Amino acid sequence: MISGIVEDYLTTIYRLEEIYGYAKTTHIAKELNVKPATVTKVINKLVNKGLVTRVKYRGMKLTKKGRVIAEKIIRKHRILEVFLSDFLGFNLYESHRLAHQLEHMPDKLVERIYEKLGKPSLCPHGNLIPGAEGGELPKAISLWEATEGKCYKVLRIAGELNYVLSKLNDIGIDIGTVIKLLMARGTYYELSVGPDKAKVMFDDLVLRSLYVKEVKCAG
Prior knowledge:
By secondary structure, this protein is of the alpha+beta class. It folds into 3 domains: 4-62, Arc Repressor Mutant, subunit A, CATH 1.10.10.10; 73-137, Diphtheria Toxin Repressor, domain 2; 141-215, SH3 type barrels (Roll). It is built from 8 helices and 8 strands. The protein has a 6-stranded antiparallel sheet. A two-stranded antiparallel ribbon has the order 1-2. α1 (4-20) packs across α2. The protein is globular, with a radius of gyration of 18 Å. It starts with a helix and ends with a strand.
């Protein structure tokens, strides 16, 4: 039986792979709110169990065995997010947080919910539900690739990391929110958000998580 700690590490690596293609120790530590030394210790155990492999000069990736475990959990999580968001009306951050608490519901119950929801292929954050048929990610670029002075609509929040969703929730960025890129300097970007033009600064992890399409700036 896989422990909750192992599940959290495997799903966090899965989510980071959706953003970067691999997972760094620092990003895992930030997401799980633990020290990098703790991450290294756990990763060593996961490598020995054949669940994680190291990528030279980059970080970690899931093995086939590790991905099977992670995808099963992520599938349940994203199905439950759809239920919590579309059926019960919770916002993106709340649906993610509550889905994490409900991930250990019986598979049979979650699959029944999936059937009743019409077998969705995407979660509310715009990410694929593992095992769903016919799903396509929205055509978009990461905010990291955006151009200064242009406006963009948010289509997807890759990875759905707690760290990222919490920041977005605090400043009111949701799927469909229009943002304007005011400045791009290194790994920090300055944006204006929504009609109130509130200015915010984002770091690399948030920038690479947000997928957007260019739209005409209002006014």
